[in-house]
Model the fold of this input.
Amino acid sequence: MTYVSLVLIKSVLLSHGELVSDDLVVGIIDEAIKKPSCQKGFILNGFPSRKDEMLVKQGTKIDKVLDFAIGDAILEERITGRWIHPSSGRTYHTKFAPPKVAGVDDVSTFQLKKFMRFFAADRRMN
Done:
C-alpha cells in the first residue's frame, strides 16, 4: 500500500472514532522513512514497540537511543488528564490542552470521554 493510502485509512478510522492499529501505524512509518526527507535521519518517539523489526527489514541501523527518566507522578498526570472526542479523534488534556468547557468538545459540543477508559474499552472489543 502507498503512504497516501495508509494515511487515508488512518484518517477514516479516526473520523469514525476508531483507534488506529499498530500494524497500520508501522506501515505509515515504514513508508515515511523511505522518503528523501528521512534519508539523513529521523526520530521515533516511543512507537512502534516493534520498530526494531521494521528497521531491520529496511536495513536501517539505530545509532542513538535516548532514555528519559520521568517520575511516576508526572507520567500519571500526563496519562490521567487525557480526554478524547471519539468520533473525530480530537484530544484534550485537563492541564496542558484543556477544552474551552471542561469535559466538552470545542467543535461539536459533545461530551468527551476519558482517554484511558475509551482506550481500554476499545481494546476489550478487539
